[in-house]
Write a structure and sequence with these properties.
74 residues, two-stranded antiparallel ribbon, 11% strand, globular
């Protein structure tokens, strides 16, 4: 399993795009689930504080996106 360090005020989808080159909802959901050790206030925050060690999933564990880009990406 790989890890990354969050950037100050980075959103979960931005972190997914930066690290895995994919920001669909399945990918973001997998990343959040892998990081259940983070307190809920951080896991469900709109933005992340900088410097957190974030676990990343293996891309083979995540199915290919079945829908188009997220509404904020259109």
């Amino acid at each position: 399993m790989n890890t990354t360090i969050s950037l100050e005020n980075e959103r979960w989808d931005q972190l997914a795009s930066r690290t895995l080159k994919r920001a669909d909802m399945d990918t973001v959901t997998h990343i959040i689930a892998l990081n259940s050790q983070l307190v809920p206030a951080i896991r469900f925050a709109a933005t992340l504080p900088g410097g957190l060690i974030i676990k990343l999933p293996d891309m083979q564990q995540i199915p290919a996106p079945t829908i188009g880009a997220a509404p904020w990406r259109r």
